[in-house]
Amino acid sequence: MGNLYFKLDSEHTFSFSTIFINDTSDEVSEFSGKDNDLGEIFSTRNTFRTNSLWVNQLRTQHDFASYSKLITTLGYSQNIGHEPDRTQNSFIVRNDNAGQKTYTFSSTSTGGSAGDNHRFFSELEETELSGRLEYTHSFLEQNESYSLSTTAGWQFRKKSRAFRVRQIDLI
In which band, very low, low, confident or very high, does the pLDDT at 103 lie, cut at 50, 70 and 90? Predict the structure, then answer.
């Protein structure tokens, strides 16, 4: 995180702010239950995710004489999310003749579906550009009892998003 502030003189100021946040998570999940067609099943999923956020803002203020003011703001942000390699493995659980549990890899040949076992990859990239322009003109000097002014402005925002995903089913 960072902030910079620059005052050129009493009428012109510039400020810049930035922040970067990164988050990762690594999770192993195990599931067991009953399937109407397969019987008892066991599944494990390994998931690793990363998310990064970077936000920047530039703001300027210009005071012209005592009756007009111009404020400009420009912002840029980027958000990136990755799921680089999630794996899922599913097994059919059976009891053998000795009463021991045996685990068979679930596949289309054992009655399972193609998506029971897979590798999954995803990536989200989001970028946003924003801007603001504000002009204020005062018609009367400001005092404690009254003031008269008008403000006009413009705002802009553009966001782009790209999401890519790929899944490889292990049959």
Answer: confident
Say whether 108 sits in a helix, a strand or coil. Answer: helix
The first and second tokens of residue 157, run together, are 């925002």
Mean pLDDT of 49-71: 93
Tokens of 63: 């005071």
Backbone angles phi, psi at 114, to 5 degrees: -65, -30
Q: Which of 125, 114, 121 is nearest to 160 (CA)?
A: 125
| Cα gap 80→131, rounded to integer Å | 21
What one-character DSSP code corresponds to residue 1? -
Instruction: Select the more confidently predicted residue: 29 or 111.
Output: 29
CA distances from residue 94 to 58, 99, 114 in whole angstroms, order as listed: 64, 9, 20
Instruction: Provide long-range contacts, Cβ within 8 A and 24+ apart, for 107-111.
Output: 107/170, 107/171, 108/171, 109/171, 110/38, 111/37, 111/38
Structure tokens at 71: 């404020």
User: Helix or strand or coil: residue 131?
Assistant: strand
